[in-house]
Amino acid sequence: MVSFEMNDRKKIGLGLTGFGIFFSFLGLIFFFDKGLLAMGNILFVSGVSLTIGLKSTMQFFMKRSNFKGTISFGIGFFILILGWPILGMIVESYGFIVLFSGFWPTLAVFLQKIPVLGWLFQQPFVRSVSSCAEMSCPYNLKHLYTPFIKAIYFVILHSCLCVTVSIEDVHGGLKQMLLAVLLDRYRGRRVPV
Fold it and tell me: Which pTM does this prediction carry?
């Protein structure tokens, strides 16, 4: 059994990871502040690399099963730096979930041991959702998951469309035409653009 010994490098890494999460949270609170979000991402990645080591970090991010998450996280960070913090954080969040999805069962066990939160995470509904996350789901929740994702996708695209059209509305019918195309694509119809 490998022991987890806390040396100074790992303590600094945990501190940097904590500050990264804190600055990312502040960036979200202050309406997607680009500087705070970028600083949070840099601190988080550097903290993880100091905590588990540079070689282990490279192996984790370059693992074949983690390519999708690594690329999404990197593209989201690049979009954030370019000046689109909301879109960057959406892409980064997807990458973060894909990258760290293997740690969710460990996190669930840890959260169940916390005195107040443990009671909440031991409720039947939360346990059924966490068992579905471990791929041993006795219920088929795909009928709940797919419409939820489609609704989020529609809201994000509609808000981006409204902002784009309100900025560059040259013709009065442009917004209605783009909204009709968006609705047809959401409903599954292929519309030539």
Answer: 0.59
